[in-house]
Amino acid sequence: MHTVSMSRFDRPYLDDPPERLQLDVENVSLSFGGVRAISDVSYSCYPGEILAIIGPNGAGKTSMLNCICGLYRPQRGRIMYGRHNLVTTPPHHLPKIGIARTFQNIELFSHMTVLDNLMLGRHVHMRKNILQSVLYWGRAEQEEIRHRQFVEHVIDLLEIQAIRKKQVGALAYGLQKRVELGRALAMNPGLILLDEPMAGMNIEEKEDMARFILDINEEWGITVILIEHDMSVVMDISDRVVVLDFGLKIAEGTPDEVRQNPEVIQAYLGEEEPA
Amino acid sequence: MTVSQNGVFHQTYSSDQQLRPTSWQRYRIVLVFILIIVFPLLVGNRELRIANTVIIAAIGAIGLNILVGYTGQISLGQGAFLAVGAYSTGLLMHQGLPWWLAILVAAVITALFGIVFGIPSLRLKGLYLAVATLAAQQIVGWIVRAWDPIDGKTDGLARELAIPNTNVVLGNRLNTSEITFYVVAMIVLIVVTMLATNLFRTHIGRAFIAIRDQDIAAEVMGVDVFRFKLLSFATSSFIVGLAGGLIAVHSTIISFERFTIEVSIEYLAMIIIGGLGSVAGSIYGAAFIKILPEILREIGTIMTEQGWLDAAEFDLILPYIREAAFGLAIILTLIIEPEGIVKVWRDVKSYFRLWPFSY
C-alpha cells in the first residue's frame, strides 16, 4: 500500500477501482397512496459528470434519490446502473456496486467518532467473520489497519485530521456535513449521491464543500448526482441540470440552457398575473 | 469531556488502535489482575459467594449490553435467555456431558433461541420489540412449568431441576466450593470481556452501533441490517447462555423463580446504571446491583443489633426495600449521570489527569 508519497488528491485504491457506469432512469413513477411523488421521469447520468437535480420544495428530488438507492420502490419504470437494475437491488447491496449517498438531514452515527463513522464506510469491503473479530488477531487486525490507511486518505482529502477522534454528535453542523461526505467517500464509490450537501451552511463552508465536490469529481473521478437549492453553486459546478416540478421533469440540459428555459423560470418565479 | 493523556504520539496505526496505549493504563490492568488473584485469599466464604453472583451477573450483563446498549434492541427476555442456558446445561449434564461442554452447548442453544426471538426485530423497534421479547419470557416460563423431559411428568416438576454431581473441577464441586467456582467463573468473565471489547474494535461491532444510531443510514452504507440484528441477538444470547450455564453449575437445584421478568428488569437496571454501550459499564452495573442488597442487609443487621428494628419484621420488609433501592438507583442515575457509572469513572480519571487544573 502506497502511503507517504501520495498527494492529497491521489485516489487510494485498496480494492479494485469501482466501475463508473452510466445511470439510466427510465420512466420512473412513484406514488404514496394518492400522492404522486414522481411521474414518468427519465434522464441519464453519464460517467464522470456532475449532474444536479433541482426543483422547488416537494418536487420529488429526495424521493428520486431514495428510488436510486433502493429506499423507495417506484411502482413503474426502471433504474439501470450499467447492468444492475436498482429497483430490485436491496439498499445494502449498493455499496458493493459502487453507489454511495449522503442525506439531507445528517444521518451520521452520532455516538461514534469521526474515524469510526468513516471506517463504517469500509464495511462492505471487510471480510472477517465474528470469530476472527472477537479474537482481533493477525488477519483481523491487519484488515482493520489496511482499511484505516484508506480512511486516512479520505481524512486528508477533506482536511478533517484534527477531529478524527472526536464524537460526531459534538461537531459543528458544517463539519458534520463534511464527515458525512467522507463516510460516503470511504465506500470507494463510482457514483455518489449528495442530498443538499450545502444546506444551512455559510458562504465559506459552501465554498469549501464546492471545492471538495470538484476535487472528488476531477481528482478521484467520481460521478456526482447533486441535489441543491443554492442556484449559484449549482450553476457553477454542475455539468448538466435536471429540473423537477411536482414530480415531473420539466427541463434537462446545461446550466445555461436550463437558466433560459421558460418553464423553469415559471416554476421558480411563478407566472405573472396577466393584467 | 474525556481527556486523554498528553504527549502520546502514535507513529503507526496499530499502536493508535491499541486498547491501552500508555504504560499507566497497562500498570492499572496489572493491578486489577493482582486484585482478582488476591481477593479470594483475603475474604471469607460469604463474600466469595457474593463475588460469584456478581461475576455471573457481569457476564449476563455484558451479553445484554451487546444487544440493548450497543445494537439498541430493547430486550425484556433476559430471564428467559438465562433460563434456556441454565436448563439446557442441567439437562445436558443429565445426558452425561461434562459440565464445561454442557455449558458451551447450552450457550449455542441459547444463541439459536435468541435468533428465533430476534426475528420480530425485522419489523419491530423500541417498545414494540420489548413486548415481543416479553413473549420469550412467557413461553419459556410456560415450557419449564409444563414439560419435564427428565421423568416425563407434566405436573411442573421441571421447575426444579436437580444438577447432577458431575460439576467437579479437581475434586471440588462447583456448587459447594466457592473458590473453585470463583476461578472458573472469573476466567469466563475475563475471556468474555476481552472478546466483547475486541468485537467493538471491528466492523461487526461498528455495524451494531450504526444500527442503533441510524438504521436507515447503516443500510445504505452496506450493513445488512436484519442479518446484523440477528447476529447481535445470537452473540448476546450466547454470552447470556454462558451466564445461565454458570448459574446451573453453581446450584444444587435450579428453579424458574430465578429467571422471572424481575430478573430481566434487574439486568436492564444493571446496564442502565453501569453504562449503556460499555463493556466495563456492564461489570460495574452488575457489581452495583448485586452488592446493593448485601449492603442493605448489613445495615439492617446493624439496626436490629442496636434494637431499632425487629429482626423478623426486617426480613419481611427487606425485599420491598430492595426493590425501592433499585428504583431509586435508576432514577438517580438518570438524573445525575445518564451515561452511568462508567462515565463517572471516566470523569474521575480525567480529573486526575488534569489536576491541579480544572481544564
Q: What key phrases describe this protein's structure?
A:
heterodimer; A: 275 residues; alpha/beta; six-stranded mixed sheet; four-stranded antiparallel sheet; 10 helices; globular; B: 359 residues; mainly alpha; ABC transporter involved in vitamin B12 uptake, BtuC; two-stranded antiparallel ribbon; 14 helices
Shape, principal axes of CA atoms of chain A: globular
Kindly name the structural category of chain B: mainly alpha
Radius of gyration based on Cα positions of chain B = 21 Å
Low-pLDDT segments, ≥5 res of chain A = none
According to CATH, what is the topology of the domain at 42-289 in chain B?
ABC transporter involved in vitamin B12 uptake, BtuC
What would you report as the Rg of chain A, rounded to the nearest angstrom?
20 Å
Instruction: Quickly give the structural class of chain A.
Output: alpha/beta
Gross geometry of chain B: globular
Q: What is the helical fraction of chain B, as a range of percent? A: over 70%
- Please report the two chains with the greatest interface, counting residues with C-beta closer than 8 angstroms to the partner's C-beta: A-B, 41 and 32 residues
The DSSP helix count of chain A reads: 10
What fraction of the residues of chain B are assigned to beta strands by DSSP? under 5%
Which sequence of strands runs across the widest sheet of chain B?
1-4
How would you characterize this protein structure?
The complex is a heterodimer of chains A (275) and B (359). Chain A is α/β, with parallel strands linked by helices and 275 residues long. Chain A has helices at 61-68, 94-97, 114-121, 130-135, 139-158, 173-186, 203-218, 231-237, 255-260, 262-269, and strands spanning 23-32, 35-45, 50-54, 76-81, 84-85, 99-101, 191-195, 223-227, 240-245, 248-253. Chain A has a 6-stranded mixed β-sheet, with helices on both faces. A 4-stranded antiparallel β-sheet of chain A has the order 2-1-4-5, covered by helices on one side. Chain B is an all-alpha fold. Chain B has a domain at 42-289: ABC transporter involved in vitamin B12 uptake, BtuC, CATH 1.10.3470. Helices cover 70% and strands 3% of the residues of chain B. The radius of gyration of chain B is 21 Å and the shape is globular. The A-B interface holds A 69, 71, 90-96, 100-101, 103, 107-112, 116, 119-124, 126, 128, 130, 133-136, 140-141, 144-145, 148-149, 152, 183, 187 and B 13-14, 17, 195-196, 198-199, 201-207, 209-210, 212-214, 216-225, 231, 235, 277.
